[in-house]
Task: structure prediction
Amino acid sequence: MLGVMADATGRRRPAAAVAALAQCALVELDRGNLQRAVEHTDTIRDLNPRHHARTARAVGAYATGIIQFSVGEYTTAISSLLAERPALRHAPRSPPGRV
Result:
């Protein structure tokens, strides 16, 4: 389902596609489908220049870093994981009265 959403939103909403593809990449890694995970992160890399959403960029960088680490690209993985670390650590506050 995430893959279908990413395909459908890639042109109109690249940030949403990046978030979906990041999740797909991590799911594929968990399933042992390393090649599919790498393909998803390649697509994330292609979509990133087309949006400015900080959270989507951070989630994509996290997934990319985890996948790179899994294939032995340790230096690149560290760069990906550290690049968006401030965005991943930021916890937005809910408006009063909302959870």
About this structure: The chain has a mean pLDDT of 85. Residues 38 and 67 are 7 Å apart (CA to CA). Residues 2-85 form a domain with the Serine Threonine Protein Phosphatase 5, Tetratricopeptide repeat fold (CATH 1.25.40). The first helix runs from residue 2 to 9.
